[in-house]
Design brief:
Layout lengths: L17 H4 L25 H12 L3 H13 L5 H13 L6 H4 L4 E7 L4 E7 L4 E4 L5 E4 L7 H15 L17 E8 L2 E8 H6 L3 H17 L7
Antiparallel strand pairs: 1-2, 1-5, 2-3, 3-4, 5-6
Helix pairs in contact: 2-3, 3-4, 6-8
Length: 231
């Protein structure tokens, strides 16, 4: 189970604690915060298009904002979270994705609330992945090769089966799950789809269990590539 693997990351290079970075994991920040005005990220694409959309909204020019955001969607090879953020902003403007794209899972985030804090595993359709341990240790996979393609795709596929059975969450994303609770979040152009339950109950669930199992496999693969594992 997840708990048996946590100690393997002790001594790894410090990373931000999962509770501190989770806000940027879901691709659902408001347009005004992607990027933040003081981030210094507005000089290169696709950030330039998000900044252009922000400026257009300040000028009450929704048509120009939409054009800038659709440039993000039309550009190949971006991070999955950039496409998710573009759809988030377009939904703010009242535009919904076409049915063929609405349920496309661009990312899956699995969170487990522990007594010590939050553990988080994420996989994205661009082949990247993240694991953050409650202690502050973590592994960031930016797809230097395709060696994790199978466990990443397995988690995405398990999430797709869940997303197909439930509708998008229409309210603000909930805070991190409480101790003893697991949450699986599917990130789609139509918004967040999620389910949560006590960890053991979700593990036994016909849809949720395979997501947790796939997340565990990906976490093991990420830990095996951590600096601590090489010592």
């Amino acid at each position: 189970m997840f708990r048996q693997l946590f100690n393997k990351l002790r001594g790894a290079a410090p990373a931000p604690p999962a509770s501190g970075i989770r806000e940027v994991m879901f691709g659902d920040l408001p347009l005004a915060e992607w990027p933040r005005p003081d981030s210094g990220l507005g000089d290169t694409a696709p950030w330039t298009w998000f900044v252009a959309a922000q400026q257009a909204m300040q000028e009450n020019n929704q048509a120009a904002a939409e054009r800038a955001l659709r440039r993000v969607l039309a550009t190949e090879g971006l991070e999955a979270r950039q496409y998710l953020q573009a759809w988030q902003a377009l939904r703010e403007l009242g535009h919904q994705p076409p049915p063929a794209q609405a349920k496309q899972v661009l990312g899956v985030v699995v969170e487990v609330g522990l007594e010590q804090g939050l553990d988080l595993v994420a996989a994205y359709a661009d082949g990247t992945a993240r694991y953050y341990n409650y202690s502050g240790a973590g592994v960031v996979w930016e797809r230097p090769d395709d060696s994790l393609a199978d466990p990443i795709q397995a988690l995405l596929a398990a999430g797709e089966r869940v997303a197909a059975q439930i509708g998008p969450w229409e309210q603000p994303r909930p805070a991190a799950p409480a101790k003893g609770t697991a949450r699986i979040s599917m990130l789609t152009p139509s918004g967040l789809h999620f389910g949560q339950a006590p960890f053991d109950a979700l593990w036994q669930d016909a849809l949720g269990g395979p997501v947790l199992a796939a997340a565990q496999e990906l976490m093991q693969a990420l830990i095996a590539r951590s600096p601590a594992a090489a010592r």
